[in-house]
# Entry
Amino acid sequence: MGSPTALVLGASLVSGVSGYLALILAARTLSPADNAEFLVFWGTVFALYGVLIGVTTETTRAVTTARDDRPATTPLMPVVVGFGLTLVAVVALSGLVWAPAVLGADWLALLGATALGSALFAVHVAVSGVASGRGAWSGYSLLVAGETASRLLLFVVVALTAASVTGFAVASAVASGFWLLATLFSRRYRDLWNQRVEADVRGLLRRLVASCSATGVSALLLVGYPVLLRVTTPDDVFAGAAPLVLAVSLCRAPLLVPLGAYQNVVVSKVAAHGVRALVPVLVGLGAVTAVGALAAWPVGPWALRLVNPDYHVDGPVFAGLVLGAGLVAVLTVTGAAAVALDHHTVHLAGWIAATVTTLGVLLVPGMLEARVVTSLLVGPAVGVLVHLVWGRRRIR
# Structure
């Protein structure tokens, strides 16, 4: 069947390539101004998806610990799916307040796409969490790869038939329902819905709130960065920011898309073997980041022009963005380790520190490129420091 690492990394590779191609397809099809709007939608919806990833993280932990000899009497899926859908409903209703300012002129259609995609993703993360908690890595990997590959396929259809910001947004949302096909056509996925755990409902909900709060803050920095940039940048400047925003996404995807799937493996390994399980992961991230930053300096500007001949970002900026992506990846790993050790407060504190610092740097006057690169270097570094220092004290 293959090792968990190989299976998840294979699915992550499919996920990363699909995400890359989807962003490139939108950039080549839409005008720069429309693409800037679409990237804000992309950042918004995936920030909400990031909040829901907390359901996967806590579900993985709950199912992993349920392997002990303690009685497992609480049906898991009704609790976690109900929690996720309630969260989506709150966000959708609150969108009547924030969506006009964030999503632009077509905010109502984009809010609808955000709500649809988030509702489907709320179930996706629950099913994924049970699969990874059981160690069913082949099933988990298929969910990860299938969802992102479906999104790319639907993007191709939209690009050929009805290329628009709303069209791409609806395609992105519908792809999050891949779990429905898997459940309908596979008995092993239907069996995941029968999972029970020994936790009481109140305790499980408390942990879900803590986990989603932490991943929500982290998602704002991981994929919601275009939203942070928009609210701290004048409209006339942001209208020309599509090349830089796309560069941020392209520099992050090779590290953060695979890591988004692999962090559940990190949770399982740290829960079973302790913090020493982090060493090979952090060494690998450091090596990949260093090589990527060196390569991005000459290759990045050329590659961006291939995406759109009108897009230009300097080589040193690309190198800085890759280094920033590496620091965010390290922050993701240290946060996953904190969750695995049941240090939810440490996890949340590190991401809050990173996000607040990033936002503070973006508010400092200066050139757009300098603000972006500095914020993506300083913010994650502060968050990692909080995780390491506070986490070490908790372990002691």
